[in-house]
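Q&A log
Question type: sequence-to-structure
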Amino acid sequence: MANQDLSFLQQDCALTLREGLKELYAKQPEVGASAQKVGALFVDHDATHVIFGCDTTFKGEAVLDAWTLGGTDIGWKGAMAYSRMPEVKEIIQQLVKEEGGRLRLYAKYFVTVFPKVMRVRFGPVRRLTKRWPYHGISEQMWARPIKELREEYGIKVVN
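Response status: OK
Response body:
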């Protein structure tokens, strides 16, 4: 799940939200295949990658968690329900295996990722002008440029 020069990682991305999602799926077909298999819940999650400008690396997913919990309307209950999905558990198990086990994964998280997650959670997330609708993306929003949506919501991409 590597970053492959995704346009939506740039603050001033001119693509529409729909185009940004298509770019993610084109450059990372495994992400698109998961969304096609699981459906709307994965598409909603993938849209947060696009709007918040987070890649699908371990670090990008962790930073996205900070954005999602603090900057969307999903809430803890919705986030926990998502994390309990068998498909999500499978992805987490794959990540644990790739990182050499849970202990190594946790060590990596707390040493390299946690500080950035906290900077995002208590920096840009707090400066949002309104919360992103996790499940309620309208057709008009899908058709708008990512740059405009970020301006409206006060989203600042953190690289």
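Response note: The longest helix spans residues 102-121.
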